[in-house]
Specification:
alpha+beta; Aminopeptidase; globular; 378 residues; 13 helices; single chain; 2 domains
Length: 378
């Protein structure tokens, strides 16, 4: 595709994927809020290692060049499992990055839309997570005053404008809540939690990182029961998808911050939460690489992490409104206080998820960032 000196290419080689990965280092070189990902991890994701999204359908990558220099990129694909289970003809876009040029952005979007139309797709949404997880979802539209917390999106403020000028409209907003430990009503939770656990017969276990295969099976049981049918953007993941996501998160995992709730009578799994230390504080120092000094920086700054992100929490229907969420949150806050964390973030919560929003707000969470996923009929 040719317009002026701008050309869009479909890419697949490892060399071209390196260029795809390296582009943000050019775009964000003067932005202190941007957090560089680890290049090796990103390459593994793009080549399909432990990538649940790529398990579920075809995808490809496009890059746009101006006078031979890379100026934009996009991942486009089809989640065939989602389409099949939700009766859709929908494609997705992800990992969009571009210089401040509407022409370049729209050329990339033209190419992505054309690719989807050729495969009988009638609607496109994005940006979605490149792993179908809870990473890099949506464009940041509120809360540009600081670096993102682990795995959350960050982008220039002009990206949403490019999409809206192309004809995209809001599909879904995702919320991030900030927690100040000094404002969390720990004592109130303590009283409620003890009463609820005794009355409704459940317990809270730390995850067993040495037996993740069994823990993954329990998580699948919970997700199969807890994920609402009304969510048209998610389907319960397979065990293989859960295992792949666990493998992605394992390098960041802290056993003190991941919990599974179970019946104290039958040991059946009834809920879980995943929280991770905010490793963005570490990644920001490493410039995308573990070598040659990255390992030293990693080990040094890892000890200084003082925040966390809680990003997945589900409770099965028959145990909702019985204090399970509160009990898990209480345990999480106790551990966070032991580690002297100075902040927490609960994210990303869909604007339509009233129960989770209410629970987070009652616990003292303050809405401070919003991410938007767009949609467009094509």
């Amino acid at each position: 595709m040719l317009n002026s000196n701008k050309e869009v290419y479909e890419i697949s080689s490892k060399k071209d994927l390196k260029t795809f990965i390296n582009l943000p280092w050019i775009l964000y070189q003067n932005d202190n809020n941007w957090v560089p990902p680890l290049k090796k991890d990103m390459m593994n994701i793009l080549r399909g290692k432990n990538n649940p999204l790529f398990m579920n359908g075809t995808h490809t990558f496009f890059m746009i060049y101006d006078d031979g220099q890379p100026v934009g990129r996009i991942l486009v694909g089809i989640n065939e499992k989602l389409n099949r289970e939700k009766d859709k003809d929908e494609g997705y876009i992800s990992l969009f990055e571009c210089i401040n040029s509407k022409e370049a952005a729209h050329l990339l979007l033209d190419t992505a839309v054309k690719w989807l139309k050729e495969r009988n797709i009638t609607r496109v949404v994005g940006p979605v997570s490149p792993t179908n997880g809870d990473d890099s979802k949506g464009f940041l539209i509120k809360g540009f005053n600081g670096s993102p917390v682990l795995m959350n999106s960050y982008n220039p403020s002009y990206y949403p404008q490019f999409f809206e000028e192309y004809g995209f409209i809001k599909n879904l907003d995702l919320y991030a809540y900030h927690f100040d430990p000094n404002n969390v009503p720990i004592e109130r939770f303590k009283k409620v939690v003890g009463y609820a656990m005794e009355k409704f017969h459940f317990k809270i276990d730390k995850i067993n990182l040495k037996n993740l295969q069994e823990e993954a099976k329990d998580i699948k049981v919970i997700l199969d029961l807890a994920m609402p049918d009304s969510w048209d953007y998610l389907t319960p993941p397979s065990l293989a998808e859960i295992t792949a996501e666990i493998n992605n998160l394992k390098p960041f995992a802290d056993k003190d911050l991941i919990y599974i709730a179970r019946s104290s009578k039958t040991n059946e799994p009834i809920g879980f939460v995943v929280a991770l230390p905010d490793y963005n504080q570490v990644l920001k120092k490493m410039n995308g690489s573990m070598f040659p000094l990255g390992v030293i920086k990693y080990l040094w700054y890892k000890r200084k992490i003082d925040g966390l992100r809680a990003f997945i929490q589900f409770v099965v229907p028959k145990y909702r409104n019985k204090g399970v969420n509160s009990a898990i949150f209480y345990r999480l806050m106790i551990e966070a206080n032991k580690k002297n964390f100075t902040y927490g973030e609960g994210s990303t919560i869909a604007e339509t998820n009233s129960e989770s929003k209410r629970s987070v707000e009652k616990a003292g969470g303050k809405l401070y960032r919003v991410y938007r996923v767009y949609g467009k009929d094509i």
